Amino acid sequence: MGKTLFEKIWESHIVVEKQNEPDLIYIDRHLVHEVTSPQAFDGLRMNNRKVRRPDLTIATMDHNVPTSDRSLPILDQTSAVQIKTLENNCKDFGIKLFDINSPNQGIVHVIGPQLGITLPGSTIVCGDSHTSTHGAFGALALGIGTSEVEHVLASQTLWLEKPKTFEVRVEGKRKNPHAVTAKDIILSIIKNIGTAGGTGTVIEYRGEGISDLSMDQRMTICNMSIEGGARAGLVAPDQKTFDYLRGREYTPKNYESLVDSWRDILKTDSDATFDKQFILDINDIAPQVSWGTNPGMTCDIDEPIPSPDKFSNGDVNQKKGAEKALEYMALESGTMIEDIKIDRVFIGSCTNARLEDLIEASKIIQGQKVAPNVSAMVVPGSQMVKKQAEEMGLDKIFLDANFEWREAGCSMCLGMNPDILSPGERCASTSNRNFEGRQGNGGRTHLVSPVMAAAAAINGHFVDVRKLDLN
Amino acid sequence: MKPFQNVKSIVTPLDKVNVDTDQIIPKQFLKLIQKSGFGKFLFFNWRYDENENLKSNFVLNDSKYVGSKILVAGDNFGCGSSREHAVWALDDYGFSVIISSSFADIFFSNCFKNGLLPISLESKMVEKLLQETNIIEVDLEHQIIKTPSEEIPFEINSYKKKILLEGLDDIAQTFQFEDKISEFEEKSTVPSVL
């Protein structure tokens, strides 16, 4: 019987295989950042261990870094200590670091692909759940905890139980691909499968609706696999994938011969079967807006907020969850999404802060101004994205519209740096999580695409971007 | 890692589904560079008001549950961020068993690295335990939860059970396969980054 892409990558990375026990899997790329690594390096020190393969390990600082003027000292002392600790650890253990002043600094999941570090068919880990982003290149990319970070640093391997396989097939064509984006596809998928729908599985996204997408868009899809509970998400590499990685700073020298070796192997065999399947038809899909406190609590832009009864489909606990979510969000069921007013707009994060996201958002705001009483910011995913955008004049478009234009980092996606919502503030955000307090204690997050966020900034409330002229 | 001991305790009922790791330990506490001392920040936004006074309506602040070692919660516990700080906070607070109808994968894996036992039970059983007011016992060796009225069996992967019971150091285990790792590296066609 044929094999799925995931099974092929898994099997080609088994170092030790035992009956009824986890497999020891080799890790080709380890990405490290300041928040989930200090205790791992401490563990190495305590046990007198070294980093086995510094040449497969890359570090950057993204979660904690201020996105304001980088020439100023970091005011938050605990952040400053954590950033300094990463610098010291990288120095002590011989790891390449893109520090706060490096032109390659950025959100770890934005810089990996951009620098050609992410490769098809490889195994990639990082102490961050959105590592699934790299799956867009046909890599098996897993988010791990700090103990596992330490394990990979020491051994370049991990004991892993083989996940199940989950086919998410996206069929059809979007009528207006500028208005209905990859973000809307993945939010629709999560809305349907639920936030635990993918638990214990690796999703492979397939079908015309996926192969039509650019690499930036595929990354948005794979990024949010974890929001559907999946261990990882991936897309089989194709010509777009191979072209994207060609000629980047860390793309391997023997790249063309690697591409030749990948081309026929890195795909699911036609007779392979998956453990689970979900099909989404995107012919008539609408822009999505989350209304609750997890990404599954999402509806179409032209729908009213559902009642907890309707949302929960008879599940008492889910109903309670929806009631609590509406209370936290200060919303009532029946309210039309377009009638929800917002205070803040955040265009950023490893989900939606790549060049294409910024280009699409800039088209919406060109020549317009952010609504009074709304404060809006753009935080590019990496310094390189920022530079490319500035070369295109996008910074000027955003600044002219009264957006703030910031330095790269995770920023208000999780608010570990000074970029946070105040209690009660409502934000249209291109990030990935609308959990209670995620963007600031008491803050209320609505997850949307970059174009939806941009349109909300201009109008002061959500609008259906399908009604705008986007061509 | 300390070996897992059987636990006798009352249960703390956290009757919520989809408890994410942002709630278990909010972001502002992830800046610390050590593993200890996270217990006081556990469920911070649910436990404390804006002036950092205890909220009387949150279950952990009910004096009945002081010293409880077993947390029972709704479906999909530990979803979201991979932050192991969530497990460090639960452990430091005093919990050593978490019972739910399902766990998010990364959280589940993180538990075993820190000597915490996550137990998945059928929803009906979790509902029952949320109401349990007596002391119960969790016996990992025999995979049984003993309440005054019944014995509830639970499943656990034999390898994970061994890790907990013996308090094994994962990395030391892996180093026994050093030759296999080197052998793999010699054959690998994936180039170095640098």
What structural class is derived from the secondary structure elements of chain A? alpha/beta
Oligomer status: heterodimer
- From the N-terminal CA to the C-terminal CA of chain B, the straight-line distance is 35 Å
Number of helices of chain A: 16
State the separation between the terminal residues of chain A, measured CA to CA: 46 Å
Number of domains of chain B: 1
What is the CATH class of chain B?
Answer: Alpha Beta
Number of strands of chain A: 19
Report the order of strands and helices of chain B.
EEHHEHEHEHEEEHHH
Q: What is the mean predicted local confidence, pLDDT of chain B?
A: 96
Instruction: Indicate the percent of residues in helices of chain B.
Output: 25-40%
Most residues in contact, chain pair and counts? A-B, 82 and 57 residues
Portion of residues in helices of chain A?
25-40%
Sheet having the most strands of chain A: 5 strands, parallel
> What would the average pLDDT of chain A be, to the nearest integer?
97
In total, how many beta strands of chain B? 8
Which regions of chain B contain 5 or more consecutive residues with pLDDT less than 50?
A: none
Strand order of the largest sheet of chain B: 1-6-7-8
Count of runs of 4 or more consecutive helical residues of chain B: 8
